[in-house]
């Protein structure tokens, strides 16, 4: 079955004409049609073509801001899944990020953008949207072809089953036998639910398949799994439609989604990874901290959040330039990783700020010992620069039990460490069980 390739276009939304011109020039490398809109209303009008595969949008605009435009897009079925990257001069506070991702963004970039990073993300997102549209088009075509004759069924690339009202397989085409790793004779007469992974359905009579068959409706599952003869999981998109009433059966069409889901996995990794250092970014860190809080609530084991800010980094940027600054950040990332256990979580959440989540400690002194190591490693001799580190420590649950409380406590302790002379750590106010903060 042929899926027609579609040349997706890019929409840039910004109320500043010079910003639109700069973005249009940068995006020429992608060899895509680029549309520009200087307001939210014009942006929504551009979306009606159905050809926009990526939106790069400013947040602060007169009238309808970027968040409002994103929400309108997500409410429209034709633009609901179009990827949006917010590009803004706003400081990426938790509130701004939460609003952006809640509105439907897949990423958030701060002006001025890193050209290579933006172009890479744009390519991946355009490819992802192409796969999504291709899958939708394929599903629609599969629905139209369910009445074709046996020769078409035998030669199509999609897996096809004909299942009777008793839940047993009557016909299996070659594609589905290859997918499941068995012969047609093994499939014929077997129960459909033996090949479909489901945590809830134990019998055919209780299955959603029979429910839809009896109602005469088509069932579509874009995130389903089949199970082959060896018990291995195969990610698929499934569509199941009743045949004519007198045939007392239905067709089940299966499209292998392994490559699409792998692309989605890579995209998800990209959205939580800092491109410069390879560490978690702010979004990935917030997810990791929320998970650590949930584990603490289950186990009761103490954890600690360390908030690290580099001392002397601004001077490196000012004196030697951003390339040397980037080199310093990558070096620091390696120094920090060398102090941590494999399961500790290290993130660069912006600029020269790093966070570390340490779980399963016995007392705050364990966190202090790690902080000592981090400060020593960041302060180690390097031929090109000299750096230090100030660290704030907040323990879970004594310093807080939410992301906001822990971040506020650790950030405040870090600024106290800087105020006290830098190159040291401080615990959050009210922290008990530590002999003393150390400089």
TrEMBL record:
Post-translational modification 4-aspartylphosphate, affected residues: 58
Gene3D superfamilies in alphabetical order: 3.30.70.270, 3.40.50.2300, PAS domain (3.30.450.20)
Subcellular location(s) of the protein: Cell inner membrane
SMART domains linked to this entry: GGDEF, PAS, REC
One GO-annotated biological process of the protein: regulation of DNA-templated transcription
Principal subcellular localization: membrane
Keyword Nucleus tagged: no
Boundaries of every GGDEF domain copy: 301-430
Domain PAS: 145-193
GO cellular component: plasma membrane
This protein's UniProt keywords: Phosphoprotein
Listed cofactors: Mg(2+)
Keyword Phosphoprotein among record annotations: yes
Any one GO MF annotation of this record: catalytic activity
Domain of life of the organism encoding this protein: Bacteria
Residues in Response regulatory domain copies: 9-126
Matching Pfam families: GGDEF, PAS, Response_reg
InterPro entries: Biofilm_reg_signaling (IPR052155), CheY-like_superfamily (IPR011006), GGDEF_dom (IPR000160), Nucleotide_cyclase (IPR029787), PAS (IPR000014), PAS-like_dom_sf (IPR035965), PAS_fold (IPR013767), Rev_trsase/Diguanyl_cyclase (IPR043128)
Protein name as catalogued: Diguanylate cyclase
The species this protein was found in: Pseudomonas gingeri
